[in-house]
Structures are given as structure tokens and as C-alpha cells.
Specification:
8 helices; 24% helix; 6-stranded mixed beta sheet; alpha+beta; Deoxyribonuclease I, Chain A
Length: 268
């Protein structure tokens, strides 16, 4: 199974530029998870009959949102956080209600769960860091709940560089959004809970980034951040064949990330 995750920063824009169809043709993912779609289903000219589509759009028009395109039919689909988990955390702030921003889709297959997430950005002034910390705990609680039943894969834009090798200029950005100790601790807690950063299973070096600023030719100079991930339950580690960061794919300020997993028969 080839799973790709991509923050498209507006699905209509990446389609109109031709980059979305080029990506599908060249990489042919079995499952494609998208973040920051900024649209509702039907607003984008998509003709991909080989995929079933599942969308979770934000209530606010043109903002946030996630989608999953899959060649394998799920047994169940869940949008957002379970209410029993969400009510335990403070997920509303002056910017809005994060539970109404279309930030999570979860598919249940016979052998595993798949969840894609678009984690709230802490903002330049860190004004959304408090709700972000609650979000991290709530999302992890959800993944742990699922993992108690069967293995889990979750992927998406987590809006944090975990370690110093995950961004080009760690000293300059220490304590800034995406590289605060609070956000990095959230990643530590995911790993402590038994989830594995699939890319780091095979690649220990820096220089691999998934997001670049539009300023100062950052992408051309590879001055970037690795803030997009595919995590998996530790039990799936023996099945992971490869993981990738696809900086060559254009169309967004993010690039896709991927994992290839050799599942036995019967997981779909």
C-alpha cells in the first residue's frame, strides 16, 4: 500500500495549476490524505473515478479542512474528534472552535485505522499555543483510543519541527511557532505512546524538509522545515518498506510525504 499525505494549501489552486493531476498520474497513491483543502466537496473539478472521496470541510468558507482519497473502501468513516474526548479539553479560543475547522478524518479498515490531521498553527505571536497544546493532547488521546483496538497510521501537517535536524535554522527559530518546547513535547508524547515517525526509521540525516516560506527563494535554497509526517503504531514497523519526502512535487508551499507498507492479505 502506497500512502501519501500532502498539505495542498488550497485544492482548487493546485488543481488549476495542473500539479494535482500530474501528481496523481506519476505517483498513483493507493490512499491520498490531504490537508488545508480550503474547499467543500464539489467545489473543485476532480475526475478520479478510481478513488472514493471523504471530505471534512471547515464551517468557515475557504479555510482549513481535510480530505482522503482511497482506492480501498473503508468499513467506517469518522469526522473530527469523538465528543467524549473533545469535551475533556479546551479546544476553543478567540480565533474559533478548532473542532469546527475540518481538521481530522479517520477511516477504519479491517486491519487498521487511518487518520489524517491538520494541526492548528500556534501563530507568530504564539497566541494560539494554548489551544494547540490542548489539541495535541486530545488528538493523541484519540489515537491511543484507536490503537487499543487495532494498529493506527496517522499523517498530516502537524505544524511542528520535532528536532533540530527537522529545520534548516534551529537556533534562529528556537521558541518560535513550530519549534517551541511545548509543541515539540507534544511530538515526544506521541513517540512515548508507541507511535513511530516512519521517515526517521530509515533516514537519520537532516536536510529533508516538507515546507518552505515563500520569501527569499527558501525552497530553491532548501531553507525549510519538516512539519509533515506519517506516524504508525510500533506494531506496523516490520511491514514498512520505505518512507519518503517528495520535495520535487510542486503546487503548494508543502510537499507530499509518503510511506509504503506491505500489508498481508485481509487488511482491507
Amino acid at each position: 500500500m502506497k500512502l501519501y499525505s500532502w498539505n495542498v494549501n488550497g485544492i482548487r489552486a493546485v488543481i488549476n495549476k495542473g500539479d494535482f493531476n500530474r501528481f496523481i498520474t506519476e505517483y498513483d497513491p493507493d490512499i491520498l490524505c490531504l490537508q488545508e483543502i480550503k474547499a467543500e466537496q464539489g467545489q473543485a473539478p476532480i475526475d478520479l473515478p478510481q478513488y472514493s472521496e471523504y471530505w471534512n470541510s471547515a464551517e468557515k468558507k475557504g479555510y482549513s479542512g481535510t480530505a482522503i482519497f482511497t482506492k480501498h473502501e473503508p468499513e467506517a468513516v469518522f469526522l473530527g474528534l469523538p465528543e467524549v474526548i473533545a469535551k475533556q479539553y479546551t479546544l476553543v479560543d478567540d480565533y474559533g472552535d478548532t473542532t469546527k475547522e475540518g481538521r481530522i478524518i479517520t477511516l477504519e479498515f479491517r486491519g487498521f485505522y487511518l487518520s489524517t490531521v491538520y494541526t492548528p498553527n500556534a501563530k507568530d505571536d504564539l497566541s494560539r499555543l494554548p489551544v494547540r497544546q490542548h489539541w495535541d493532547k486530545a488528538f493523541l488521546a484519540y489515537m491511543q483510543k484507536l490503537q487499543a483496538t487495532k494498529p493506527v497510521i496517522f499523517c498530516g501537517d502537524l505544524n511542528v519541527a520535532h528536532t533540530e535536524i527537522d529545520l534548516a535554522r534551529p537556533k534562529e527559530n528556537l521558541g518560535k511557532k513550530g519549534f517551541t518546547k511545548e509543541e515539540r513535547k507534544g511530538m515526544d508524547e506521541m513517540i512515548a505512546s508507541g507511535f513511530v515517525d516512519t521517515f526517521r526509521l530509515q533516514e537519520k540525516a537532516g536536510g529533508h524538509y516538507t515546507w518552505w516560506s515563500h520569501f527569499s527563494q527558501a525552497r530553491l535554497r532548501n531553507i525549510g522545515w519538516r512539519i509533515d509526517y506519517v506516524f504508525a503504531s510500533g506494531a506496523l514497523t516490520p511491514l514498512i518498506r520505505r518512507a519518503g519526502v517528495h520535495a520535487e512535487v510542486m503546487g503548494s508551499d508543502h510537499c507530499p510525504v509518503s510511506v509504503e507498507i506491505s500489508f498481508p492479505e485481509g487488511v482491507f
